[in-house]
Amino acid sequence: MSLFPEDPANLSISRLKLDLVAHNVALPPAKSKKEVYVELHLKHIKQKNAADFSSDEEDQVQYVADEEEAEMPDPSGLTDDDLMAALLKHGVKAGPIVDSTRALYEKKLRKLLQSDGHGCLNGVEQGVLYSDSEDEDEQEYEESGSEEEETHEQPDQAQGGSSQLSQEPVKDTFRDLLPNTNSTPTGIYVTRRRAIKGAAGRPVQYPDTPASPTTLERREVERRLVPVQIQILVFLIVVCLLYLIYVCVQDDSFTFVALLDSLNQGTDSEEGLSLQAETRDAPALSGLE
Amino acid sequence: MSSTSQKHKDFVAEPMGEKPVGALAGIGDALGGRLEEKGFDKAYVVLGQFLVLKKDEELFRDWLKDTCRANVKQQGDCYGCLKEWCDAFL
Fold this sequence. Notes:
In chain A, helix 7 packs antiparallel against helix 8. Chain A has helices spanning about 15-20, 35-70, 80-90, 100-120, 125-130, 140-175, 215-250, 255-289. Chain A has about 290 residues and is mostly helical. Chain B is mainly alpha-helical and about 90 residues long. The longest helix of chain B is centred in the C-terminal third of the chain and has 18 residues, at about 70-90. The N and C termini of chain B lie far apart (about 25 Å). The interface of A and B includes residues 105 and 107 of A.
């Protein structure tokens, strides 16, 4: 290598000879001119050197690439099948990998690998990843691949949920015990400060004073919403009863009506009483409200 | 969402036949031009890509973004349009 920058023309014939022998180049017939040696040197050794050099570079590049692959296999270097298998390892069922879809799947795999890398908490899991790039462990990894996926995801969930999980039960118990107070770390509960009514010239205000007549009305309507339905039901029942009684009273021609009448006559008075009671109840209820 | 846009309704209403790529919801003149440059001249070619990605929304959106620089809304419009068409006619 160190010879390479030197011009072969500057070297002695013996040196040239040595170089040529070292590079397995057939020596020219003895007593040839120096130029012949130089030419041979240029022809063979320089080319070889250049080739060697470039191949060295490639080796280096490959080595670097291998290192990267150990850390994060480069999706673009994978074959279609390998890419599909790699995606399957990450739980993605890839469709056909063709020219028009390959780039997308490569991107997806890269994204998945990145998210996995961020998911690692320490070097332990990376160690597993390193070992999986070795061929001998590949089978084993494939078997444990799905499990590992879960273990990758679980820490994230646990992290996300841990703060909530640790806080929620505490909050619940506190709220169960003291529903109206906010929990404080010291355990001392502070109530909101209230204005002193009637002091320093402020007018005395009673807590139950309504804000405005419209809100009162709204509240009343809201309070009545459910009872109104019941009231209507009761009203309908009453109307039905009244209609039945009316029909029974009117149509004396039917014999069974007469029978009903005789039956009703006993109950009529009761019904009338209950009706009266109901009709009394309704205004009483509304009056209460 | 675009599910109510006229273009979407028109596309989803009938088989796409030989409609140009611009008939897809979310694909205007600019995106249509870019897609045609890349060989996606008909709506059914885009449908082919959509299907070969197994109707995956994420992948299809990515592809549309890479191919014709569609924005998120355009991606969603086009995806929804093809999805609904497939549900109706496939």
